[in-house]
């Protein structure tokens, strides 16, 4: 069992769950290659965002580990939207490319929504295309965004009870909050879901305290402390922030949307930052790419 936080909350480590997901993907890739299919993921970026470079390297490495080939398409800052869209559409028309991932943010003036909509839904391994978002909401097969899918897989890996429980998702972004709410309330998962956000006002903390499962995806460092958490609740921290810390040699530390020290004293379980949701997001990029290759080629 993973070690507990200082206050006793069980650590829901992401690496063990991610390793299991990668092993399953590697077996599927081996079967695809035996059938003559080499899965290929195109990684598209615009500009030189340092964080994006790290994420892209991790995704490329994760693909290589399981036998998926990756193709980097790096465009300079200042590339107009039409040119980015044209490159994405060319990748979409290439039968050798099974998945396309557009790394956000895109440097201006590229319009991220126009670029994301240029990705064919069948190759949209990030699950951001409006068609895939709609299919998730309707309970139809499609691609689930990697972070929400990774959160669900992480909870299942650690055998966290979900059906019939109450989840409160803090944040309503199209990347995490909204798709996660749809996923947790879908048939087969069967949670009752409340979405809280910046316009929820003073009641937001009260809503959070009603949760059996509290997911913090609000983008503010350590905003969720113990006063937000019902004793014994499971807490998933989606945020990651670099904050000043004069006690560290680097002068900073990584933290999430949750104040782990206080929340760990009251929660039943908590994902660490780093090492919780992050590894699962990368693992689900791999899983979705394998799924895309299988669907496009008809290989089992």
From TrEMBL:
Positions that bind NADP(+): 171-173, 240
**GO CC annotations on file:** cytosol
EC numbers listed for it are: 1.5.1.5, 3.5.4.9
Protein family per UniProt = Belongs to the tetrahydrofolate dehydrogenase/cyclohydrolase family.
Task: List, alphabetically, the Pfam families matched.
Answer: THF_DHG_CYH (PF00763), THF_DHG_CYH_C (PF02882)
Pathways per UniProt = One-carbon metabolism; tetrahydrofolate interconversion
Q: Which GO molecular-function terms appear in the entry?
A: methenyltetrahydrofolate cyclohydrolase activity; methylenetetrahydrofolate dehydrogenase (NADP+) activity
Return the InterPro entries for the record: Aminoacid_DH-like_N_sf (IPR046346), NAD(P)-bd_dom_sf (IPR036291), THF_DH/CycHdrlase (IPR000672), THF_DH/CycHdrlase_cat_dom (IPR020630), THF_DH/CycHdrlase_CS (IPR020867), THF_DH/CycHdrlase_NAD-bd_dom (IPR020631)
Q: Show the PANTHER family listed in the entry.
A: C-1-TETRAHYDROFOLATE SYNTHASE, CYTOPLASMIC, C-1-TETRAHYDROFOLATE SYNTHASE, CYTOPLASMIC-RELATED
One GO term under biological process is: L-histidine biosynthetic process
Task: List the lineage, top down.
Answer: Bacteria, Candidatus Eiseniibacteriota
Positions of the Tetrahydrofolate dehydrogenase/cyclohydrolase NAD(P)-binding domain: 145-296
Q: Which UniProt keywords apply?
A: Amino-acid biosynthesis, Histidine biosynthesis, Hydrolase, Methionine biosynthesis, Multifunctional enzyme, NADP, One-carbon metabolism, Oxidoreductase, Purine biosynthesis
Annotated TM spans: none
Question: What Gene3D superfamilies does the database record attribute to this sequence?
Answer: Leucine Dehydrogenase, chain A, domain 1 (3.40.50.10860), NAD(P)-binding Rossmann-like Domain (3.40.50.720)
Known catalysed reaction(s)? (6R)-5,10-methylene-5,6,7,8-tetrahydrofolate + NADP(+) = (6R)-5,10-methenyltetrahydrofolate + NADPH; (6R)-5,10-methenyltetrahydrofolate + H2O = (6R)-10-formyltetrahydrofolate + H(+)
Assembly, in brief, is: Homodimer.
Give me the gene this protein comes from. Answer: folD
What superkingdom does the record give? Bacteria
Name recorded for this polypeptide = Bifunctional protein FolD
């Amino acid at each position: 069992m993973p070690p507990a936080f200082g206050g006793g909350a069980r650590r829901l480590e992401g690496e063990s769950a991610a390793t299991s997901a990668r092993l399953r993907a590697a077996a599927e890739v081996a079967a695809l290659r035996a059938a003559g299919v080499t899965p290929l993921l195109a990684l598209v970026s615009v500009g030189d965002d340092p964080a994006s470079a790290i994420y892209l390297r991790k995704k490329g490495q994760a693909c290589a580990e399981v036998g998926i080939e990756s193709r980097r398409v790096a465009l300079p800052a200042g590339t107009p939207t039409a040119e980015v869209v044209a490159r994405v559409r060319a990748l979409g028309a290439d039968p050798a490319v099974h998945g396309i991932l557009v790394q956000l943010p895109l440097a201006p003036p590229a319009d991220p929504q126009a670029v994301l909509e240029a990705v064919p839904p069948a190759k949209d391994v990030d699950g951001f295309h409006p068609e895939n978002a709609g299919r998730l909401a309707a309970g139809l097969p499609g691609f689930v965004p990697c972070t929400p899918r990774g959160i669900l897989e992480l909870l299942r890996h650690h055998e966290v009870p979900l059906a019939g429980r109450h989840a409160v998702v803090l944040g309503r972004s199209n990347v995490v909050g909204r798709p996660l709410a749809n996923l947790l309330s879908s048939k087969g998962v069967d949670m009752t879901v409340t979405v809280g956000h910046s316009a929820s006002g003073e009641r937001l903390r009260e809503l959070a305290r009603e949760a059996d499962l509290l997911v913090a995806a609000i983008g503010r460092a350590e905003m969720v402390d113990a006063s937000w958490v019902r004793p014994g609740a499971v807490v998933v921290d989606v945020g990651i922030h670099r904050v000043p810390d004069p006690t560290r040699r680097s002068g900073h530390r990584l933290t999430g949307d949750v104040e782990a020290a206080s929340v760990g004293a009251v929660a039943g379980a908590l994902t660490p930052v780093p090492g919780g949701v992050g590894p699962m997001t990368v693992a689900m990029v791999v899983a979705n790419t394998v799924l895309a290759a299988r669907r496009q080629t008809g290989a089992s």
